[in-house]
Amino acid sequence: MSQPLFRFLATKNYKNLSLDKNINLTKINIFIGSNGSGKSNFINCLKFLKHSLTTIADESRGVSSFENAVTQIGGNKILDGEVASPAVVRLAYCFSQISQTGTSGRNSGILDLKIYVDQKNQPRVSIAEELLYSGEYLYESASSTPFYYYKFHNQEVGKGVVSVYNPPGQNSGTHFETLDNIHTNSLGLSSIPRLLESSQYPPESTPVYRIRRELIEFISKWQFYNANNMDLNQIRTAEPKIGASDIYLSSSGENLPLVLDNLIQQNIDFEDIINKAMKSILPKTRRLRPIRSGLLSLTVEWYFHDMNEAFYLNEMSDGTVRMLCWATILNSPKLPSLLVIDEPELGLHVSWMPILAEWIKKAATQTQVIITTHSPDLLDHFTDCLENVLCFNSEDQMHFSIKTLSKEMLDTKLEEGWQLGDLYRVGDPSIGGWPW
Length: 436
Hints:
The chain is 27% helix and 25% strand.
């Protein structure tokens, strides 16, 4: 199976997002829109899926990974405020490259979740229906019939079916086998091994077995960063212990020396890459490197031309430290399967925006990237890829959908010399206008 790609998110009754049309994401995706337009809600849907599948359940409190993940994105407040409770919230995630030979010729798959939300009678959130299928089917009006890897809770709560390859000697297709004891407080995708233990067929006889493993591996490597959550004090003062295998910067950034050290150890070119990146923002940079601090800890030394003494991160400006974090993330030889950065421009000088944009574009040649921004100075440098800019657009002042920009949409203004950031500055209605 090729590397999957997250293609789109569809929603119904989820907070303020009305995503009922397929807006396909690409390798590079720039989200724009006013505050409160749903950008963070979109990203929270992605975090929710990762946490539901990869975090460890809190058994001491009897709370599942799914329940924890729902709590993090709002609990029973995930329901659209204009929808009467109880109701069902739908989140459908589409991935490319998950179909398996022998099941379907289509080249995509959808994990379709319907989440029951009760805010009044007995406040709770649980899984009302969960389907995994291939193809483009998402709405009842679709013309084609999907191939179902499994259907859970769709006929009866706690029950479902999974596709199983027909035995040798029969036709080469599949049939459904019934499964019981399917929990409504955890994703079926994470429960497949447990559910198949009682099956008369080995797990390898189900098309979902390999797909599930590779899909969870893909989702587990998603990484999320928010410039507001980067703890500059921790980054400057932390001296992480040698020995941990971190290759991704943590959300707060305090493991920066360790990540730099591990990436340099794993890739002979990375030290030159990170030094070149820092010279692009501070031309007098001679060398930057992680070094041992004491016997078991790490810190970062920064040398400049014409200066013999090393500088340390606690002596560098906020913007410089932020740019080092983004350089480490975006120029890494070990990029995550999906990289999401919220407002990377915060605290940075305008002259560094073209450099940041180039790092983002470079990373997107190797993996899938989502960037949210309010910076017209950064947006100027994505004028050459308008089709990768997605505008969260107001529908009725309460709900927002997504529209993709295009050169045709802005052609006249581009010919007049406008850049994308210019249009954002003046609140041009073609890219969303002002939020009031």
